[in-house]
Amino acid sequence: MKLLIKLLTGCISFFLVCSSALAQNNYKPTNTGYVNFSLGGTSLLHAKTQNLELFGCNTSITVGSKFWNGPSGFEWNKANQVLSGIPYGLQTDDSTKEEFYVSKYYIASPPVFKPNGQNDPNTLYDIGIVTPHEFVLEGEKPVQMVYMDYSPLKTMYIEYIDITFDSSFDELGVDFIPFRVECNDFPWQDANGIKDGKGASGIGATYKDSTNVSKLFLPYYYGNGSDGKGDSPIIKHYLDCEVTLLNDILFHYEVFFVVKGEKYTTLNLKDFKNEKISFHAEYRKELPSGCVKAKD
Predict the structure, then answer these.
(1) Model pTM?
(2) How far is C-alpha 52 from the geometric centre of its chain's CA atoms?
(3) Considering the domain boundaries, does residue 296 fall inside one?
(4) Cα-based torsion angle of the residue sequence 201, 206, 211, 213 in order, rounded to the nearest 10 degrees
């Protein structure tokens, strides 16, 4: 099972000031398949429907976007909610006429919390499990089954961490950064035969907007002492979460974290939460593994 973390509550459109060759969804699909979603419940009160996003090479599928063919939101506790027309396999970019493959997809979905709760430090967040949170479409008209449930993990508080975008994003005309989050000590609810379960991972994404600032978040809970037990004062316990940038699906560019002049593709948010962090993008001529045909 996988934890799915979407680290922004919304996306603001950003005008691409450079070549449109780096824009996403700039092609007409030649092969398409389906993704069939079944949703469970949540631990917290929730809106009637839940949104999500799919990311692949040169492809971003969100509600209302070019390749979205499905409901305007997914209903809780309901099976078999289908997205159709999902591009996969060999495609051709309309601007450059370059061929590429949509070889894999990642799925991201936001946490559940009260309206406008991101501005309240006392807000609890319900972070869900998505199985699987990455997949490959293969075959003549493939169908991928996906299950989402927001009830197995314990609810968390969130501390936001600002990350700035440097000028490289404007120079390249790109604004999209997908990533994987792995928290090896994320606590599970004690239920259904599970006791003291820990560990989860998932997918998130962020976009550059006019503020040039993004916010990642670090989950935490309150407990006693260094191990959350005993008679010592109540303190914050930050989860041990690593964020890895998913450069394997970025079309002709790659991104890095920059801390004190050093570039990273993986950061431990717990270790770096008090550091000044920025995003940096670089052009890449060769296509990554998620944009080429998988080797047999």
Answers:
(1) 0.88
(2) 9
(3) no
(4) 30
